[in-house]
């Protein structure tokens, strides 16, 4: 029998795992609507747009941004902000727009399949 602490850990892991598979989609979609965001702004946008249901941690976001940049889906540029601080700003590339379309299509197929299972199980 699981203790309350073990159950909370299991629930917490399930939430993290469900976000993990959709992180690329979320980042690409946000950058398609709001180009020129830095990493913290992307994390904040995901949280606020999801009404704080989805929260991305730096340890997940920055490796994903690096991977997407290496794949050519996004490009990054260091800029100096008005306050003198440097920030790495991200924007979607043409390849990123194509990847976004593929990710959205995949997400629609997955959510439709899950819906079918929930309705028939």
Describe the overall structure.
With 121 residues, this protein is of the alpha+beta class. The protein has one domain (13-120): Arc Repressor Mutant, subunit A (Orthogonal Bundle), CATH 1.10.10.10. Helix content is 65%, strand content 13%. The chain has helices at residues 4-20, 23-33, 39-49, 58-70, 94-120, and strands at residues 37-38, 74-80, 86-92. Strands 1-3-2 form a 3-stranded antiparallel sheet. A hairpin with a 5-residue loop joins strand 2 (74-80) and strand 3 (86-92). Helix 2 packs across helix 5 (94-120). It is globular, with a radius of gyration of 17 Å.
Instruction: Classify the beta-strand content into a percent band.
Output: 5-15%
What's the CATH class label?
Mainly Alpha
How many angstroms separate the termini?
Answer: 26 Å
Task: Let me know the number of strands.
Answer: 3
Q: Which descriptor suits the 3D outline?
A: globular
Give the proportion of residues in helices.
55-70%
CATH architecture: Orthogonal Bundle
Number of domains: 1
Residue windows where pLDDT falls under 50 for at least 5 positions: 1-17
Question: What's the average pLDDT?
Answer: 86
Main-sheet strand order equals 1-3-2
Integer-rounded radius of gyration: 17 Å
Helix vs. strand class? alpha+beta
The major β-sheet equals: 3 strands, antiparallel
Q: What order do the helices and strands follow? A: HHEHHEEH
For this structure, the CATH topology is Arc Repressor Mutant, subunit A
Provide the CATH superfamily.
Answer: Winged helix-like DNA-binding domain superfamily/Winged helix DNA-binding domain
- Helical run tally: 5
């Amino acid at each position: 029998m699981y203790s309350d602490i073990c159950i909370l850990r299991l629930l917490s892991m399930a939430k993290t795992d469900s976000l993990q598979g959709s992180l690329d989609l979320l980042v690409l979609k946000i950058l398609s609507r709001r180009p020129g965001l830095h990493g913290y702004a992307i994390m904040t946008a995901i949280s606020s747009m999801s009404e704080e249901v989805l929260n991305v941690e730096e340890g997940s976001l920055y490796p994903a941004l690096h991977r997407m940049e290496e794949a050519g889906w996004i490009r990054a540029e260091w800029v100096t902000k008005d306050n003198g601080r440097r920030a790495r700003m991200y924007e979607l590339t043409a390849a990123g727009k194509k990847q976004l379309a593929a990710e959205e299509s995949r997400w629609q197929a997955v959510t439709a399949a899950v819906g079918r299972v929930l309705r028939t199980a």
